[in-house]
Amino acid sequence: MASNEDDRKVRISKIAGRYLVFDIDDVAYIRRQHGICAVFTGTMPQNPTQNVFLGLPLELYAEDAKMLLDRKVAYIADDPLEHLTRLKSMNDETRKSYLQSIKTQRRTAQLVFNEAKAQSQAKHKDKRKPKHPQLPVVVSTELPPPASSADDVAAVEQEEDGGGGESLLGSSSSKPIKTDSTPPQKLLVKEKLPAITPTTSNAMISSGASNPDVENHTALPLYSYLNERGYFITPGLRFGGDFSVYPGDPFRYHAHHMANSYGWDEKIPMLDLVTSGRLGTAVKKSFLMGGQKPATDDSEAGELRAFCIEWAGM
Question: Is 125 a catalytic residue?
Answer without folding.
Answer: no
